[in-house]
C-alpha cells in the first residue's frame, strides 16, 4: 500500500495515508475503509512514524488522510504529525473530519498549532440521498450551515440511485460556493452501494473540463492522489 506521495498540481503538497483506529462514525453505507484500521495502537504509531519520516517539506502544505478522521489517530501519532509540521515548517495542513467533529475543529488546529483546512465527506448536497441512502450522518440543512464549520466538501458521483440533476446541483455548489473541493468518482467496493457505469460515463463526457478548474480536485479513480491501493 502506497502511503506517501507528492501532489504537484493544483494544490501542491505532500500527502500521507496514515494508519488509524476505526472511524468514530463508521456508518456510511458505501464505506469499506475499515481494512486499514487497527486497534493495535503501538502498531499504528510505528507505521505512522515510518510514513511521516518520508515527508520532506517540499511545499508549504502537508495533507494527512487516514481512512477515517484525523481525530481517530492515537495521541502519539498526532504528536508525530505536530512534530512533522514543526520540523518542516508547514504553514498549512489538509485533514479530514466527519460532521460529528464539527465542534472540535478549532481544538485540533490549536493542538497541532497549524492552520488546518478541514475537508469533510458530504458526498451529495441532496439531503435525502445523503442521509437515507448513503447514511452519511451529516444532517446539515444548507450549504451555509456546512460552511460554518468546514472548508472543503468531498462529493461523490456515479452512485446507483443518484440522478444527473443531483450531480449537476452538487457540481454547481462546489464550483461556486467553496474555495476548495474534491470530487470522487465512485468505484466499486465490497458494500451494497454500487456504482452506476452509465452515470459515470455521462459524468466523464459532460464534466471532463473540471480537470482544468483550479480549486476542484477530481479523483477519477480513488488512488489518484497516489496513496492507497
Ligand atoms: S466517515 Fe469516512 S471513514 Fe467513517 S464511515 Fe464514513 S466514509 Fe467511512
Descriptive notes:
The chain is α/β, with parallel strands linked by helices. The chain has a single domain, classed as Alpha-Beta Barrel (TIM Barrel), CATH 3.20.20.70. It contains seven helices and eight strands. The protein has helices at residues 41-52, 75-88, 105-112, 127-133, 143-147, 164-177, 197-207, and strands at residues 4-7, 13-17, 61-65, 92-96, 115-123, 152-157, 181-185, 216-219. The protein has an eight-stranded mixed sheet with strand order 1-2-3-4-5-6-7-8. Helix 6 (164-177) links the parallel strand 6 and strand 7 (181-185). Helix 1 packs parallel to helix 2. The N and C termini lie close together (5 Å). It binds iron/sulfur cluster (SF4).
Question: How would you describe this structure in keywords?
Answer:
229 residues, alpha/beta, TIM Barrel, 8-stranded mixed β-sheet, 7 helices, 31% helix, globular, Radical SAM protein, Elp3/MiaA/NifB-like_rSAM
Relevant CATH superfamily: Aldolase class I
What is the number of helices?
A: 7
- Indicate the low-confidence ranges by residue numbers: none
Strand order of the largest sheet: 1-2-3-4-5-6-7-8
CA gyration radius, whole angstroms: 17 Å
Give the overall shape, derived from the CA principal axes: globular
Write the element-wise H/E pattern from the N-terminal end onward.
EEHEHEHEHHEHEHE
Range of helix content: 25-40%
Hetero compounds? iron/sulfur cluster
The average pLDDT value, as a whole number, equals: 96
Q: What is the number of domains? A: 1
- The CATH architecture would be Alpha-Beta Barrel
Q: From the helix content, strand content and strand pairing, which structural class follows?
A: alpha/beta
**Termini separation:** 5 Å
Strand content range: 15-25%
CATH class: Alpha Beta
Question: Using DSSP, what is the number of strands?
Answer: 8
Largest sheet: 8 strands, mixed
| CATH fold title | TIM Barrel
Amino acid at each position: 500500500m502506497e502511503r506517501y506521495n507528492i501532489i504537484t498540481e493544483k494544490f501542491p503538497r505532500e500527502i500521507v495515508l496514515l494508519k488509524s483506529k476505526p472511524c468514530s462514525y463508521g456508518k456510511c453505507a458505501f464505506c469499506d475503509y475499515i481494512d486499514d484500521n487497527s486497534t493495535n495502537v503501538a502498531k499504528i504509531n510505528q507505521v505512522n512514524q515510518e510514513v511521516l519520516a518520508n515527508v520532506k517539506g517540499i511545499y508549504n502544505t502537508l495533507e494527512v488522510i487516514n481512512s477515517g478522521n484525523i481525530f481517530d489517530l492515537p495521541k502519539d501519532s498526532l504528536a508525530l504529525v505536530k512534530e512533522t509540521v514543526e520540523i518542516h515548517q508547514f504553514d498549512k495542513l489538509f485533514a479530514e473530519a466527519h460532521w460529528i467533529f464539527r465542534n472540535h475543529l478549532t481544538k485540533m488546529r490549536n493542538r497541532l498549532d497549524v492552520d488546518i483546512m478541514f475537508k469533510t465527506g458530504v458526498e451529495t448536497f441532496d439531503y435525502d440521498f445523503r442521509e437515507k441512502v448513503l447514511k452519511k450522518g451529516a444532517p446539515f440543512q444548507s450549504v451555509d450551515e456546512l460552511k460554518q464549520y468546514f472548508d472543503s466538501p468531498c462529493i461523490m458521483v456515479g452512485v446507483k440511485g443518484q440522478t444527473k440533476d443531483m450531480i449537476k446541483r452538487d457540481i454547481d455548489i462546489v464550483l461556486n460556493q467553496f474555495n476548495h473541493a474534491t470530487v470522487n468518482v465512485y468505484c466499486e467496493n465490497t458494500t451494497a452501494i454500487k456504482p452506476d457505469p452509465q452515470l459515470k460515463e455521462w459524468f466523464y463526457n459532460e464534466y471532463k473540463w473540471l480537470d482544468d478548474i483550479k480549486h476542484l480536485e477530481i479523483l477519477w479513480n480513488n488512488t489518484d492522489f497516489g496513496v492507497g491501493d
